[in-house]
């Protein structure tokens, strides 16, 4: 039986792993190769400045030789905030979700999501949670629906500089 998950805020020492995971997610979901130095600098900037981002890391104890356990990271997500004048409050955006393949289908994202949802509901002025998902990523969409999220009906347009 897998050990229970714990969710914690990311620390500066997590930056290299989170940058590696962000790059892996971009390759897997969007077939994009990101510049490693840029991603690492971005993750470091987000961890250093909570106004920019907040990273959470899911941890699970794994057995070592004998009865000893070591706590290992098994997934992550990043939160950013968006002001809504319509609602006079903030949306929390879930971004940069990544669970390594060996840890998928074990409730890692669900644990991260429930942790964020509890904190959002307990924080005055937060009006809800949002995330975006690739149109063809049916597995992720099923997961999000199972957690109570609905398709908001928006498409995202962008211009990249």
TrEMBL record:
Keywords: Acyltransferase, Transferase. Gene3D superfamilies: 3.40.630.30. This is GNAT family N-acetyltransferase. It holds the Pfam family Acetyltransf_1. PROSITE patterns: GNAT. GO terms for molecular function: acyltransferase activity, transferring groups other than amino-acyl groups. The keyword Hydrolase does not apply. Residues 5-161 form the N-acetyltransferase domain. CDD domains: NAT_SF.
């Amino acid at each position: 039986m897998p050990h229970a998950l714990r969710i914690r805020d990311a620390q500066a020492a997590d930056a290299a792993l989170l940058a590696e995971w962000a790059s892996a997610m971009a390759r897997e979901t969007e077939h994009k190769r990101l510049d490693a130095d840029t991603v690492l600098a971005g993750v470091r900037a987000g961890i250093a400045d909570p106004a920019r981002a907040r990273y959470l890391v899911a941890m699970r104890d794994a057995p070592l030789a004998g009865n000893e356990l070591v706590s290992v990271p098994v997934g992550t997500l990043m939160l950013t905030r968006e002001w809504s004048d319509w609602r006079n409050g903030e949306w929390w955006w879930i971004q940069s979700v990544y669970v390594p393949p060996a840890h998928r289908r074990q409730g890692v994202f669900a644990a991260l999501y429930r942790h964020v949802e509890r904190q959002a509901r307990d924080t005055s002025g937060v009006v809800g949670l949002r995330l975006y998902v690739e149109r063809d990523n049916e597995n992720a969409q099923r997961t999000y629906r199972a957690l109570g999220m609905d398709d908001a009906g928006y498409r995202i347009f962008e211009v990249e500089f």
